[in-house]
Structures are given as structure tokens and as C-alpha cells.
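Schema walk-through. Below, the input block comes first and the output block second. Nothing else is stored per chain. Lengths vary across the set, and this one has 473 residues.
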Amino acid sequence: MSELFATTGTIAAIATAVVPQQGSVGIVRVSGSQAMAIAQSLFHAPGRQVWESHRILYGYIRHPQTQQMVDEALLLIMKAPRSYTREDVVEFHCHGGIMAVQQVLQLCLENGARLAQPGEFTLRAFLNGRLDLTQAEGIADLVGAKSPQAAQSALAGLQGKLAHPIRQLRANCLDILAEIEARIDFEEDLPPLDDKAMISAIDKIAAEITRLLETKDQGELLRTGLKVAIVGRPNVGKSSLLNAWSRSDRAIVTDLPGTTRDVVESQLVVGGIPVQVLDTAGIRETTDQVEKIGVERSRRAANAADLVLLTIDASAGWTEGDEEIYQKVQHRPLIIVINKIDLVEESDRENLQSKILVALEAHQMNDPKSTIVTAAAQNQGIDALERAILEIVQSGKVQAADMDLAINQRQAAALTKAKISLEQVQATIVQQLPLDFWTIDLRGAIQALGEITGEEVTESVLERIFSRFCIGK
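--- output ---
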């Protein structure tokens, strides 16, 4: 059995981020049958404070042998089963930083606890029936959420909004299986199965599975974010656009072409969606070896991006260089950013935009949603750019989550397996094969749905899920 599944004994870990000289509070969490004994050996609560569940005690953490004080702290007591793990849990709320929490953790380990594995607290909560597997994954998603929308989706999972429909689908499959097996065991006493009604019932289950599967890309977008690459010729204002958008000076901005030699990254949130913005080196033919590397990285970033912002210089119009870059990125979801509009006389702007739109029309890029005018150096046009990104996302060209329920890759794989099994059941019915054949794939669908909530799951799956958690969670 793997080390992750050695869930006996009492475990301890630091449950908060340790930031030198910055964290104000650090928590050491202990769970297991010896948690209370460890707390009583280390914590001195002056006065007549009552050691009972769901109380906070004030006092001092001392070395049990030397009685040397380690920290002034609070002790939170949560006795089983009213705790996160459904075991006895105590938390030492210490002063932040490194030394206090490290010393307290070491004392816990010296007095009967062992260091928790990644995700072991949540694993115990799952194994003890406190959470199902979708809720456990929701906790991991909540910890790693990069936007309010991602956090909302994670909370939905934590509240059982995914588990409920999955359990209902599984229950429906079990009902169908019971009907079939009843005919197998008591064929002479029951009327024959209605094949059409059976196929209709399976159709409804498959349709709901399909609806849930449609949220996979949306969930992936919420969890990993939208990757946006700013590409274009040198000196068209890509770095200025990044700086204006991120409201920072992440990229160096000069009048010299080729200043950006590598991909510069910034993290933003647009309409609740995390966005990773990549400012790339200007794409052009060059003999400079360093710039060549930057140009190649720019091309790779554009090909890997979910959305490309092809930036052109308004004062230069649509050039052959822009055309060459467009040919390389046209297969990606695309927005044309006409930058440096402030360098064009106001009386000439309308004529300039018309010429550019004519050039774009040849590539079916004359949709106003796909063409944005900016003056990045003057912080103009950023709101319009964000609106255009959200419109493309909502159009379906780039999947987005506009609901509070979104499945992950593991859940999608299990749902796909269930859907295939149900399709095979329907094929078996159409071919009029014996009832025993119907049950084989139906049981496969039931097992696949059970894997999502953890009602039927292997040790290797659990290990893969919980190993991605941080220690202390």
C-alpha cells in the first residue's frame, strides 16, 4: 500500500503558507486519536479554561521536558466527529513567520504525530464520509482558484452541486439494472420489458451526461485561465499594450525595434476569467541570434495561445509584415488591435480605419468585434479590448464558464466512459441480444458514475487526486 494510504495514526502539518517576516499567523494542524494528548502535553492554558470541543484556549506552547516556552498561542479544539476529518483535531494558532510554526510542528512530531502527506487531511475526510470525491476536488480547486468565477465554481462543487446530479444518474441506471435483472430472475412472472421505454430512459440519462460534459472546456478555462498572446511586428506597441492592460511596467518600452527579446508574462482577470497575457518579441526576419530565439519563442507562444492579439501600427496601416504574421496565426481565435491611433491625425483616422478594414475584409476579418482601436501609450482602448475578448469567449470560439458548475478532466473521462457504456446498452437492445448482455455495459456505466463521487474508486485514482494537494490540506 502506498505511503499516502497509511492513514492510521495521528498526523500533523503546517496548514498556512509560511512567509518569512510577513505572515501574521501560522497554524499547525493535528488530526488523529492522539491529537488531544499531544495538545495537553504541549499547551499550557492558564486559569480555569475548559478543554472542550469547539472552544479556543489562550496560553503558551512549552517543551514538555524543559518547559521552555516556544510561543504564545491559541489552541482550537474540534473533537470527533465534528471536525474536518471526523477525527479529533487540534490547531495551534501561532505567531507567523518560520521559526514558531516549525518549532511547534517539530514538538508535535516528537510527541506522537507523524508528518502528513499531501492532501491527507482531506483524504481522511473523504474516507471517513465527511466529503465525497467531487467535494474534495472542489476544495483543491478553491485553494487554487485564480478568479472569483473559478472560486464560485469550486464552491459549487464543494456544496455538492455536481455530486447530486451524478448520484441521480447513477440511481436511474441502478433502477434500470434492477428492472432487467428482475426479468432475468423472474421471467415467467413478469411482463416482457418495453424496449422503446428502456431506450428512452437511457436516452435521458445520456442527454444529461452530454450536458455535463459540455462544461469540461469551461471548467478548464476557469482553472487554468485564458492564454492570450500579443503578437506583431517590432515596435507596433505590444509592450505598451501589455503595460497599459496590466497597469504595470512589466515590459520595457522604447522607440527601438526589437527591444523585447523574450516572452513577458502578466496575470490578469477579465470578466471573472483569469487571463495569462504573453507579450512576445516582434516577429520579423533578423540576423541577430538572440532576437532569432525571441522570434521563434513568439511563434510558439502564438501557436499555443487560446487567443491571439495581432497588433498593428495605425500610422503604418496594414503592411506586408502584418500580412505575413497574419498568415501564420489566422488559424487561432484572433483580434486585430490597431494601436498607436493617437499618432494619426483625427481627420485621417476614419479614412485609415476604412483602409485597414478593406484589407481585413479579404480575410473575413471585418467583424467589428474582431477589430479594436487602441492608443496603449495613452491607456486608451483597453476597456474595448476586454469587451471584445469577452464577446469572443461568449461566442463559443473560446470556451468560457458562465455557470457555477464545471467538471474537470478526471470527471469528464468517467462521464465519457459512462456515456459509451450506455450507447453500447442501446446497441445491445436494438440487436435484441439476451438480457444478460444488457447488464454488462449498464454495470460499466454505473461503475463509471460511481468513480466520480468516490462510491467506486481505486487506490491509484485516489492517490493521483490527493497527491496534487498541498501538505496541510
